[in-house]
Design a protein that fits this description.
It is a single chain. The protein has 337 residues and is of the alpha/beta class. The chain has two domains: 153 residues, Nucleotidyltransferase, domain 5, CATH 3.30.420; 165 residues, Nucleotidyltransferase, domain 5, CATH 3.30.420. Strands 3-2-1-4-5 form a five-stranded mixed sheet, sandwiched between helices. Strand 6 and strand 7 form a beta hairpin. The protein is globular. Its main location: cytoplasm. Its EC number is 2.3.1.234.
Length: 337
């Protein structure tokens, strides 16, 4: 089965084709980072308009790359949520219109399920069960994954998500948008031990996370370092390194705890922050098997939606009626496959 996947939950327009026996056949991605950079963050209306402009072109490019035509598709998967309502609606209407024209099933996919299953696109996919650390700009969660659709939430953030905290600290250091990758690059030439920062919530039981206090620590330190409203280059690098180091140490402790509490020995890290090299290096010191998505599939993309959708469409699932977007959608509501 050839399944077309469409991702439009935020500011990335992703389209891919996945075949249930041949694997990923194409992957097209357009990022709107330059569009939103001058605003310092995503502008929902601009994101929706860009999806409208780019999506038809990307669908054609994905089909061409896969060496097929639309008539060869057996289903269309799209991101139904969570995400920005307007952006989701662009993907939903496009996917459902294409599926209706072709007479094939359409299926709304949970964005976070796409991230959880993205490591299955690697050459070394993790077998079930495993603990997943899902870290992105909008989500930070520990999830026990027993199979497709079998998810148990172990803990999550009570305030800022990991990627959101990275972006906010990057912004206070006057780094370009999107800030997380720029902060990680700056941290490479910094001293992570120059500033001592408190690791949040590691002294409490459980697997919940909190990064707003750590962000505040960085803000207070930045104000102390600023001269004429600007933090010097080396001071900024040291502060970025200290922040990144503290996040990595915090997640290392929590991951170790999650593995101990579940008795599992496999850990998957997924989401945009999964591309962070310092965090990967720290988690490599766990007594566990580690799995990551390929770097191209850490951030939002159509390949993960195509894969997740393919698992469900191949199992006979499809939309019933005309479901609308789910900007907030608990992962635990998903059915098993």
């Amino acid at each position: 089965m050839n399944i077309l996947g469409i991702e439009t939950s935020c500011d990335e327009t992703g389209v891919a084709v996945y075949h249930t026996t041949r694997g990923l056949r194409s992957h097209q991605l357009y990022t709107q980072a330059a569009t939103h950079a001058e605003y310092g963050g995503v502008v929902p209306e601009l994101a929706s308009r860009d999806h409208v402009r780019k999506l038809p072109w990307l669908i054609d490019a994905a089909l061409d790359e896969a060496g097929i035509v639309a008539a060869d598709l057996d289903g269309v998967a799209y991101t139904r949520g969570p995400g920005l309502v307007g952006a989701l609606l662009v993907g939903i209407s496009t996917a459902r219109g294409l599926a209706a024209r072709l007479g094939i099933p359409a299926l709304g996919v949970h964005h976070l399920e796409g991230h959880l299953l993205a490591p299955m696109l690697s050459d070394n996919p993790p077998p079930f069960p495993f603990v997943a650390l899902l870290v992105s700009g909008g989500h930070s969660q520990f999830i026990e994954v027993l199979g497709v659709g079998q998810y148990r939430l172990l803990g999550g953030t009570i305030d800022d998500a990991t990627g959101e905290a990275f972006d906010k600290v990057a912004k206070l250091l006057d780094l370009p948008y999107p800030g997380g990758p720029h902060l990680a690059k700056l941290a490479e030439r910094g001293d992570p031990l120059r500033f001592k920062m408190t690791r949040p919530m590691v002294d409490r039981p459980g697997l919940d996370l909190s990064f707003s206090g750590l962000k505040t620590q960085a803000l207070v330190q930045a104000k102390k370092l600023a001269v004429d409203g600007r933090v010097g280059d080396q001071d900024a690098a040291d502060l970025a390194a200290a922040f990144e180091h503290t996040v990595a140490e915090t997640l290392f402790i929590k991951c170790k705890r999650a593995l101990a509490e579940t008795g599992l020995t496999r850990l998957v890290m997924a989401g945009g922050v999964a591309a962070n090299l310092r965090l990967r290096a720290r988690l490599a010191q766990l007594d566990a098997e580690l799995f990551y998505p390929p770097l191209a599939y850490c951030t939002d993309n159509g390949a993960m939606i195509a894969y997740a959708g393919a698992q469900r469409i191949h199992a006979g699932q499809a939309d019933e009626g005309y479901p609308g977007p789910r900007p907030r959608w608990p992962l635990q509501e998903l059915s098993h496959v």
